[in-house]
Design a protein that fits this description.
The chain is mostly helical and 213 residues long. Helices cover 37% and strands 0% of the residues.
Length: 213
């Protein structure tokens, strides 16, 4: 994706923070390679759930992009990011076997980071590399305590539940359904764990601000 406006037909169900960071909260032309796949877990050998981050890194990123650092990746203008774990949490909440694998999941995630660095010929102490963590829990708690404290989420009125009617067939951000207590864009949660598009906009806005700083 580049800088065209986000496709209205995909708004708001399908767009996540990376789409907004690329097309809405950018200060200059940004091109993004988005390798994320719906319903992914970190490691399918630990928690099978369709696609996983392991395959995305090992089978897509490393062979197709890892060796092209000299042609594509300028250290001064390149950002690599991952946003993963929601589906692992969701499955673990109802699966005792999966819940006992968290140490292994984090180890698998760490291994992937090491593999990606090696593919890019970057050591963990490489002088031109900056590594940072965006703490979504801090932002989420801020919004849950007071949605109006963040511009992107000021319209949220329901921070505790979700409405099954909004998990499909949503055509407008302010769509209403008689079975729901509020319009679509006034919910924090899309389901039990996934936040609404307005929260993804808030994530993108804060990531952009952090990169400017």
């Amino acid at each position: 994706m580049g800088n065209p406006q986000i496709d209205p037909s995909k708004e708001p169900m399908e767009n996540k923070w990376i789409s907004y960071l690329t097309t809405q909260y950018n200060d200059s032309m940004i091109e993004t390679y988005n390798l994320a796949l719906t319903s992914s877990t970190v490691d399918g050998s630990l928690i099978p759930h369709g696609a996983d981050l392991v395959s995305q890194v090992q089978e897509t990123f490393i062979p197709n992009y890892g060796s092209k650092k000299g042609d594509v990746w300028d250290p001064s203008t390149t950002l690599f990011a991952s946003f993963i774990g929601v589906n692992d949490v969701e499955i673990s909440a109802s699966n005792v076997t999966a819940a006992g694998k968290w140490d292994n999941i984090f180890q698998s995630y760490s291994n992937l980071a090491d593999q990606a660095r090696m593919a890019m010929n970057l050591s963990s102490t490489y002088s031109d590399v900056s590594v940072f963590t965006f703490e979504t829990d801090v932002l989420f708690n801020l919004i849950l305590d007071d949605p109006s404290s963040i511009k992107e989420t000021a319209q949220i009125t329901n921070t505790t539940g979700s409405c099954p009617a909004y998990r499909k067939d949503v055509s407008a951000p302010d769509q209403s359904d008689p079975s729901c207590s509020a319009p679509y864009n006034q919910y924090f949660w899309q389901d039990g764990l996934h936040p609404m598009f307005t929260v993804h906009q808030a994530i993108a806005a804060q990531v952009a601000e952090g990169l400017r700083g």
